[in-house]
Amino acid sequence: MRAIILAAGMGLRLVQPEGQQKPKCLLRFGDASLLERHLHFLKAAGVDEVVFVTGFKSEQIEAELAAIDWKPKTEIVVNDEFTLGSVLSVHTARDAMTRGGDILLMDADVLYDERIVEPLVAGGSVNRLLIDRDFEAGDEPVKLCVENGVPVELRKQVAAGLNYDTIGESVGFFRFDEKTATRLAEICADYVATGRAKMPHEEAVRDLLLENVQNPSHVFDIADVTGAPWIEIDFQNDVKRAADEVLPQLNALRQFAGASQQ
User: What's a single GO MF annotation on this record (predicted)?
Assistant: First the structure.
């Protein structure tokens, strides 16, 4: 299993101080950066083939990886046009998407409970999406809508009249088997070829889901991670919430887990 972590964006909405800008995955919470947390959690889950798609200040990410001297060495793929959409980052990683085996496609700017990785990697080859039913309403969360166990929508805006029985926020971590990952790579290539490189990669994943609704060829599992702490870092307020609310929850869970093993 291979993890592809999208870390190319500039994070403009974070509004970092002039001269102090850095990729969001290098933000530190507690004793580790988001990047290092990803690596530790993935290794603990048995995933040690990791590909970072970088762009903005890629050299800083490379320096962080060198500083922590991670083994086995991670792969870096650079999206030189990182000011465009994340669909281009997925397209840039097309070789890693299509070289065989299941892949995990993950946003880099997420602080999360390691328990979120467990259902993502569990079992044999599969397509899997994560849903958190406890989410704040509004235009920012990417909503995942499910009807009878089938994902029918993945967007910030849900069309009026859409039929579904479950709605939640997509965590931004996906798992695809070899066939589905190849099809997603094809969809992303079409986005780029038709002048839609500025789109977020969730739109390409959405196309894949809707394609399946119309002509089922890929079975998708939905793993419910409601209750597991996590936050995507987009704005300065997210940084504060991550430090003040989410990190203490994660530390408490880690202490509880450690005490339970004694």
Answer: nucleotidyltransferase activity
